[in-house]
């Protein structure tokens, strides 16, 4: 990929994608069905990006955050009624340069594909890994979730941190902050703080002492 490219955008609040992570999507709106059809016939990639509003705000053309992630289409199922089930594989984060004036029903933008150094990260320290796992368990208990913790423990550090960041019910701004963190260790540190705040909001008690 060149340093910059024009890509179709899928603005979806609360949905973030990281390099080397996957994101399943159900595409039903006509404009985004057209986007998937066009992408599948071309470079087979779209840009996942968050609007700076929630879905409840119901804004037609919301302003966007400046950072998103390229999603390569690695799974595609067209349903009988024209909807799609899609699986995206994150490749690299991008920074928005400018939205393009286009005639498509979906938004497109020119983006900087070299804004982040998204090589595979160094693993977390043992104490930090333990802290992420412990706080995830506490949050899961506070929210009454049923989790296969043995499967969670088998995830590598990057998959663990990014999976929690994707599925935890953080607000749009918190999700964006996690996406934009420069290193895995920094993202893990922020994730622990966000889980603690969310757990306390759920009535899950005080935070525990930091391990590092």
From TrEMBL:
- Return the Gene3D superfamilies for the record: LON domain-like
Show the SUPFAM superfamilies listed in the entry: PUA domain-like (SSF88697)
Task: Could you list this entry's UniProt keywords, alphabetically sorted.
Answer: Hydrolase, Protease
Q: Which GO terms describe its molecular function?
A: peptidase activity
Q: Which GO terms describe its biological process?
A: proteolysis
- Give a yes or no for keyword Hydrolase in this entry: yes
- In what residue span(s) does the Lon N-terminal domain sit? 7-199
Q: Which PANTHER family match?
A: ATP-DEPENDENT PROTEASE LA (LON) DOMAIN PROTEIN (PTHR46732)
Q: What's this protein's name?
A: Uncharacterized protein, similar to the N-terminal domain of Lon protease
